Amino acid sequence: MKKLWHHCHAATMTGGKYSVIEDAAILTGGARIEWIGPRAAAPDFGDVEHIDLDGAWVTPGLIDCHTHLVFGGDRSGEFEERLEGVSYAEIAARGGGIASTVRATREASEDALFEAAKARALGLLREGVTMLEVKSGYGLDLANERKMLAVARRLGATLPLNVRATCLAAHALPPEYANRADDYIAYICDEMLPALAAEGLVDAVDAFCEHIAFSPQQVERVFRCARDLGVPVKLHAEQLSSLHGSSLAARYRALSADHLEYMTDDDAAAMAQSGTVAVLLPGAFYMLRETQLPPIDALRRHGVPIALASDLNPGTSPALSLRLMLNMGCTLFRLTPEEALAGVTNHAAQALGLQATHGSLEAGKAADFVAWRIGRPAELSYWLGGVLPGRVVRGGSQVDIERIA
């Protein structure tokens, strides 16, 4: 039966703005929104189920468009050591850092990775996330990248979440390819990506373009391979230095370029022209105690869509709350609450290539939304984390999170 959700206010986020409808009503049929508007303007829908939302504010379901949700182990011990004065170089020299996560991920079974990732995903779901992206990149060989991506697919198949899987094999150099970065890139392009794409495990391809990872020339080889396979690309770019990776991403019409602390005005102009979304990651900025701010004014001036994400990962952003990222986006990067909310709805959907079906409350789009017990939309950015009372609706049905857990 169709459902009429009413006695609510809606921040529809159309056009990346609040686009508020006071005293709204939302008609859903199955997994789609069939009508939304002021309740007084609603036509007679006939025999439908009426659901009173008791004055709640309704927003689109939140979208975490950049996570490394699937990984083995954690690096809390290293976090403690760094605070006690041990340098990252010292930790890395004895096999710590990303190498320790690669080791733990390779050693973990698919089931163990799934259970750990499921617990993290449920935490995000509780606070209103209905879609997320999961990157691989801690396997760094075909078998283990496949294992990580298979876990991402299982999460989407078993939880009321839309999960997008991104292959980030070009994340770091695995130990067996020490000092042979070009050979590893060839392995990615010749063996890994063709196999994983053929198995239906890849929705996008990502890479880490940085002096501690891969050069723009090496990344371009990965992008050309992805293009040949018909898979869209994304890029970690300009986090630690300016290599103009974001301009490279724009040339390949990437869905997004992420981090961007060191991007230039020319990079922003290139992204605007290509429609590439800027995904800002305040959790990593905070955790690494960065001081180089992303050029927010340049992004605004050129009209680049700005998304926010958790960058949930065990090393540089162990962030289990996307809503906390809303506050950090405002306090650290000086986004407005409206920009921050657009960054985890409308623009986040665009960063995943799903803006036609998700990210705003419009007829024809997915019936994924959250009814919040708040007084105004800015409260979503105002409160420092925590689960705000509300209802999570995915595909037109209210989610019973405790039953799933």
UniProtKB/TrEMBL annotation:
- Function of the protein: Catalyzes the hydrolytic cleavage of the carbon-nitrogen bond in imidazolone-5-propanoate to yield N-formimidoyl-L-glutamate. It is the third step in the universal histidine degradation pathway.
Its primary localisation, in coarse terms, equals: cytoplasm
Per the record, the gene is hutI
**Co-factor remark:** Binds 1 zinc or iron ion per subunit.
Q: Which reaction does it catalyse?
A: 4-imidazolone-5-propanoate + H2O = N-formimidoyl-L-glutamate
Stretches assigned to the Amidohydrolase-related domain: 57-372
Name of the protein in its database record:
Imidazolonepropionase
User: Pfam families recorded for this chain?
Assistant: Amidohydro_1 (PF01979)
Task: Quote the record's binding site residues for Fe(3+).
Answer: 66, 68, 236, 311
